[in-house]
Amino acid sequence: MRGAAQPVDVAGAKRAGKEGANVASCDFTLKRFLMTYCRAVICALLALNITACNKATTPPSPATDNTASIAPPPHVDGSPQIAMAPDNVHIDYRVWGKGEPAIVLVHGWACDANYWSAQIDALKSKYTVVAVNLAGHGASEKNRTDWSMGTYGEDVATVVRQIANRQVVLVGHSMGADVALEASRRIGDRVIGIIAVDSLKSIGLPPMRQRDIDAHLAPFRADFVGQTRKYVTESLFEPGADPVLVQRVAYDMSLEPPQVAIPSMQALLAMDFTSVLPDIHVPVLAINSDLGPTEEARIRKSLPGFKADVLEHTGHFLMMEVPRRFNPLLLKDIDVLVQGAHH
After folding, report:
1. Closest alpha carbon to 184 in 156, 161, 218, 206
2. 177: closest CA among 90, 288, 258, 99?
3. Residue of 89, 107, 122 whose CA lies nearest to 170
4. CA-to-CA separations, 290 to 35, 238, 334, in angstroms, rounded
5. pLDDT tens, 161-180?
6. CA distance 243 to 221
7. What is the pLDDT of residues 212-226, one digit of tens each?
8. Given this structure, which CATH class describes domain 80-341?
């Protein structure tokens, strides 16, 4: 506003040939005009706001677990959104696209929603894409003490209740697949399927013994940063993997707060699928690396209908390592789930 008014005043002063005193007088008059104008605009806006607030609206009826709990907030693709988990932790998530169903991406241990960056463009032209930062990760808050898979599952369920899509596909990488199982139990019939990414390979095996869990966690407790970088570089990538990606992932994961990462790993290692799988009534598919075996026959004894695609010569972060090979499989699995939900 000031930028538009000042040149006119100066031009008028030049045409009139007024002395400096008159210019100063005009400048004072202009400032007083602007102040008066701004006050008027502010008052008008306040009046409009008060009028809008005073208009009576009928509150929405309480929603069931099978529907969105509130109208979704408007979003610009990829802009931050916030959901409040039941334990009053802010959960950050991002949304792209507008299609049906919603594809909800759940990251793994000590990671965040950015690990799905190579999948967003492949999905958003056809589906609504939701990338969640679990509590303690990314921009989500970490003011909690319960880091169980069930509580993480509630994080995802809380986000899903804020989106309007009738159907949801949960896609979980690593720990994110365990979280997706827990989330599915809480969301209900809106979930039409789950896609695990290099995960769920231990289904059908006995849960890990506590002494083995303690032995696994001991080096992380002693030196979290050093052990995390060692674990990532030596165990989660195949030999010959892109060294830049390896170092980037190892460095990033080592920055996760130990007070979040260590109890989360403990809960993950203690996961007892026998208490969860009876509540899973949707197809579960997997896209796994060949870094470790995927024994489908054993898994299907506990999870009938389980099917896995195995990408050869890939590591644990296959969606980042080989997105051109990974994304077509992801789209294929989503289509299988959508077609199955229509029958």
Report:
1. 156
2. 288
3. 107
4. 69, 9, 21
5. 999 999 999 999 999 999 99
6. 26
7. 999 999 999 999 999
8. alpha beta
